[in-house]
Write a structure and sequence with these properties.
The chain is of the alpha+beta class. It contains eleven helices and 20 strands. A four-stranded antiparallel sheet has the order 2-9-6-7. A four-stranded mixed sheet has the order 4-3-8-5. A four-stranded antiparallel sheet has the order 12-19-16-17. Strand 16 and strand 17 form a beta hairpin.
């Protein structure tokens, strides 16, 4: 079935937002780029500006996220946003939202601005959008809403498991600042082997700090990185070798809480430290949670206040002191993590399936393959 195609500019009125004074409480909700990532974000203002309704599609117009869209907001929009106010009665807001979501890569590829990206207004207005019957649009939007809710539910479940692990860690080991349980305190230099020198490999899996999202990274995922040729690796200044026994810790602000447990051998950029726990003293699973804690983050931030590239150097990091519980206590925590990871594996498979399902539906929806 062929649907009528129309230019986006013929179906919406585009209005840019502006900067306002943010307040904890105010007459209008103040919508900013953060709201497109988290609907729970709540900031207000008393200043009038470009008012958006729940039927307007909001698009990030400027900045790194230019092109990202949202819908269902009511309030005053900020300076980096614009609202797409529907002027066509035959277009359903959430259908338009999902279509623009499906076109996100295209919209981003047409952005202008070398330093600060901006949505290309002319290209956006010329974007061809399908216009099936209104009833069909609503059915498509309902299907995509349901698929999106499923993937969000699966992602939230994974986050709950991580929160559970954090809670169990605190329950077993206590607050590392107060050390109420009186564990022996040691410096990292005593219990961790730091990298001794850079390497120059011929061929290896390579990762850097942007591949780490505060979670494990695995070679089998295929979404993290691939093999780098020697010519490509030689363009990277400084590299460390790591194995599945290491912890990867990013040393540059604002990514100081990016820590990963790899399950493979490879090469990481010199922006990261591969740390090898001395297993007679400390287990890597326990150390991993310590390095991700607010306790260590506060220390690292205080040590990394430099003018150019704020980072914590190796000698400073070696001085950090942490409580070191008996190995048996650490092993009990590791046993819990193994059981949690088994459950996580199933939840992760469900999350991958729901994400794949959503992306498949998103592509089919606008090729007239989802509903007649």
């Amino acid at each position: 079935m062929k649907w009528e195609m129309v230019k986006l500019g013929d179906t919406v009125k585009i209005s840019k937002g502006k900067k306002h004074e943010p307040l904890r409480n105010g007459h209008y909700r103040y919508i900013n780029i953060e709201d497109l990532h988290n609907h729970k974000n709540r900031v207000f203002t008393n200043e009038k500006g470009t008012l958006a309704s729940e039927n307007d599609v909001i698009i990030a117009w400027d900045g790194a996220n230019a092109g990202k869209v949202g819908v269902g907001f009511s309030g005053v929009i900020g300076s980096t946003l614009a609202k797409l106010e529907l002027t066509c009665n035959d277009l359903f807001p959430r259908f338009l939202f999902w279509y623009l979501e499906a076109c996100n890569d295209l919209i981003k590829s047409q952005r202008t601005g070398a330093t600060i990206p901006h949505v290309n207004g002319g290209a956006l207005k010329s974007l061809q959008i399908p216009l099936p019957p209104l009833a069909t649009q609503k059915r498509i939007a309902a299907i995509l809403d349901a698929a999106d809710a499923l993937r969000r539910k699966d992602q939230a479940l994974l986050q709950k498991y991580d929160e559970l692990a954090q809670a169990i860690f605190v329950d077993m080991f206590g607050d590392p600042v107060k050390n109420e349980k009186g564990w022996e305190v040691k410096s990292l230099d005593q219990i961790v082997q730091f990298p001794s020198g850079l390497v120059n490999p011929k061929l290896a899996p390579y990762c850097n700090m942007f591949h780490v999202g505060g979670d494990n990274i695995e070679s089998k995922t295929g979404r993290i990185f691939g093999l780098k040729k020697a010519s490509e690796l030689n363009l990277i200044s400084g590299k460390f070798h790591f194995s599945g026994q290491h912890i990867l810790y990013n040393k540059i602000r604002p990514y100081l809480n990016k820590v990963a447990l790899p399950d493979f051998e490879g090469i990481c950029s010199a922006d990261m430290y591969p740390l090898l726990a001395k297993e007679s003293e400390i287990l890597k699973e326990y150390l991993y949670f310590v390095l991700r804690s607010d306790y260590f983050l506060d220390f690292a931030e205080k040590q990394s206040r430099r003018a150019n590239i704020p980072k914590i150097n190796m000698n400073e990091m070696k001085l950090f002191e942490i409580p070191v519980p008996p190995i048996q206590v650490q092993q009990n925590f590791t046993s819990f993590l193994e059981k949690k990871n088994e459950i996580n594996s199933n939840a992760d498979q469900n999350a991958c399936f729901s994400e794949t399902l959503f992306q498949s539906l998103l592509q089919k929806a606008f090729n007239a393959e989802l509903v007649p």
